[in-house]
Amino acid sequence: MTLDEQREWVGEQFDAAIAASGVAEGWYDIYNNDVLWARDRPEDRARTLNSLFPRDCGSGGRLDESLKNLSADDPLAAAAAVRSFWESEGWAVSDIRSYESDPYFRADGEDGAQLAFQASKEGMSLEVATACSVNNTVTNWRLHSEMENESEE
Predict the structure, then answer these.
(1) How far apart are CA 145 and CA 147, in angstroms?
(2) Residues 44-79 as b or e (16 or more Cβ within 10 Å = b)
(3) How far does Cα 36 stand from its chain's mean position?
(4) Nearest CA to 105 among 123, 81, 79?
(5) Could you tell me the sign of the dihedral formed by the alpha carbons of 99, 20, 123, 117, in that order?
(6) Are 122 and 70 in contact (CB under 8 A)?
(7) Measured distance CA(92)–CA(120) in Å, rounded
(8) What's the pLDDT at 106?
């Protein structure tokens, strides 16, 4: 995948898991509480996705991003719904930690992509990591970003 395709995929995974959770509102960037992930906030969505830069994964790069939510009425029910959804989508789902009051599980794709969900009575978090890519826009993301900035000017 190109860097732009990775960013788009991350957004799609966020949207799908959030829909499955049944908690449509209150999601925000884990690093910036003022940046909300909501369909009616396209600037915030773009800010979250465009701030993602690849991390090393061998000879390529992958995106890794998280959202948090502290507004759910029942985070444990949301976690169960997300887990069922990922299983129905064919992801290999396994427990990272299996405490009933604090579930934390991951979903692995055949291509190396990973999803994770953690919940407690206080809230929940959603993590998305793309598969590793050796596309030039990923491995040379600094140059790609500079070229994008120049074309916008």
Answers:
(1) 5
(2) bbeebbeebebeebeebbbbebebbbeebeebbebb
(3) 13
(4) 79
(5) positive
(6) yes
(7) 22
(8) 98
Dist. CA 116–CA 103, nearest whole Å = 10
pTM, full prediction: 0.90
- In which residue are the tokens 């994008």 written? 148
What is the amino acid identity at position 49? Answer: L
- Two structure tokens written together for 127: 């993590």
* Encoded amino acid at 63, one letter: L
- Check residue 140 and report its DSSP letter: T
> Which pair of structure tokens corresponds to residue 129?
């990591």
Q: What is the pLDDT of residues 121-141, one digit of tens each?
A: 999 999 999 999 999 889 887
| The pair of three-digit structure tokens given for residue 108, joined into one six-digit string | 């692995």
